[in-house]
Input
Amino acid sequence: MTVSESSGLDVERIREDFPILDREFDGTQLVYLDNGATSQTPDRVVDAISDYYRETNANVHRGLHQLSQEASIAYEAAHDRVAEFVNADGREEIIFTKNTTESENLVAYAWGLNELGPGDEVVLTEMEHHASLVTWQQIAERTGAEVKYIGLNDDGTLDMDHARETITEDTQMVSVVHVSNVMGSINPVSELADIAHDHDAYIFVDGAQSVPTRPVDVQDIDADFLAFSGHKMCGPTGIGVLYGKESILEEMEPFLYGGDMIEKVTFEESRWNELPWKYEAGTPLIAQGIALAEACDYLDDIGMDAIRRHENALAQYALERFSEFDDIEAYGPPAGVERGGLVAFNLDTVHAHDLSSILNDSAVAIRAGDHCTQPLHDTLGVAASARASFYIYNTREEIDKLVEALDDARQLFA
Ligand code: 7TS
Output
């Protein structure tokens, strides 16, 4: 069975959109398996950026001249396109930020700092990325609120019984990662949203690894907030998204103050602009936002459900190949359980960092380290792990190359 048959994606065709995948290092073709960190950018998105700078570049919402009007229309339309991508009600609910991390901080500062106090609790999971974990830790410290963590089952899935015990009347915010960037597990965010809402708490979904890899519908999940990054979904760096329910965004205070986010200013006071501009102070991410909309078109043309199947098929294949070796420990749910397209693992005798640099000699790019989840690695009882993470252009043959390169590492450290 070929990859395209197993996942429904025409991977060979897709690869043509990414010239970077043809790069060779010392005559060996790149095998890019670090998509959890950042995905590659298709020609269409690169063109959207250069077309914008060649033809439309101007500041938005300021000029009455033609270029500024065109840039403003394209920038606003980009919000509509992203809203459609996650099924938000409209552009009012889509704020462009720098990345997932900034989206987390926006809510933590603008909502958490104002609303939390002693006796309040913020509930996270033990598999949170530092973007959420460190941010809420700091806000809790400043406000006197407490952070609690939902634990994991032995198989790497979230312990939902523990979730039901941990989320109580004291909980004000439940902030959970949708797809773990280490375990690959897919958390039941819709169920968690129900539990949070039953206790009058908000739910913040970290969609950094889920929005690029599967259909995510904010209304279906009933997320109060959803954050994701353009650079993990075929878009450029420097653009992220915060989705928020309109009613909550209306109530919240702004995060950053300055130009563009105001409606009226006197020497004494200021009134805020309408949504979403209330949260986009200063010259915004114009080219990046327009390019992100192009990335949404690109991914939708491929089909988000087909991407989800492809991701899972590759992860299952990697687990299958890894299971041939006694010295590989793979983390997260066992084979057969649907997961995101990534597998973190350790090879008995070789430190993950050494492994990564040996694989680099075979032009295989993976990530090694704690993947910004130090506490999760403490729970796993390891300092670091290696991680192969897949995207729309990866193939089983590339996973075979990874497995071959692992053997080189074994020989070297034998
Ligand atoms: N949340 C999750 C689940 C992530 O995987 C990442 C990035 C972030 C938040 C932060 O995203 P950023 O765009 O603001 O940096 N994760 C990774 C990773 O796994 N390897 O490199 C970056």
User: Anything to note?
Assistant: The pocket of 7TS is lined by residues 36-37, 99-101, 129, 131, 177, 181, 206, 208-209, 229, 367, 371-372 (CB under 6 Å).
